[in-house]
Amino acid sequence: MSFEWLDIAKEIQSVAQAGLEYSQNQYDIDRYRQLRGLSMKIIHEYSNAPMEQIRNLFAGEKGYQTPKVDVRGVVFRKEKILMVREKIDGYWTLPGGWADIGYSPFENTAKEVFEEAGLNVKPIRLLAVFDKIKHAHPPDAYHVYKLFVLCSDSGGKITPGTETSDAKWFSRIEIPPLSYPRITKEQIQIMFEYLDNPHKDILCD
Prior knowledge:
Layout: H1 4-22, H2 26-47, H3 51-59, E1 68-77, E2 80-86, E3 92-93, E4 96-98, H4 105-117, E5 122-131, E6 144-152, E7 164-170, H5 185-196, E8 203-204
Parallel strand pairs: 1-6, 5-8
Antiparallel strand pairs: 1-2, 1-4, 2-3, 2-7, 5-6
């Protein structure tokens, strides 16, 4: 199934948001509001998502629209990678989530690993920056950049957090069912390539 309609709707939303931020003329502002309304209508018609949900998704966005940032901690222990089970869908991913304001990328990563797996880690190297739309994720209303950060293992005990129901170590041949909005099999395989070759170059789409 083609999701070109979603890309078009997101582009219209981006133009409308920029126009609403920088326009001074009331007529232009009204036209950009119309554009925003059209983008929401497209998403509503094709996705069957409630209009109120779509409005809440976009209406709070202000300023020039830029990609959102998702951070993922990559932690290895004895040839195994740390993964957490998300409560929201019951599937597994690398610990991480949206980057919070006020924290650097590395600080965000360490915070997410602690919150989701109970492990204190030290981020040591950026491994990859992926554009979510270029990978095998389900379509998303946002344009997202995904940062994968290698972290040192503190050797502590792992415990799930408020948003996760479990946390475990997995070898490359026993990867559990994945939460595809958050991680793909290809991305997990790439992370293991860094375990095999610590000098592998940083990847960026």
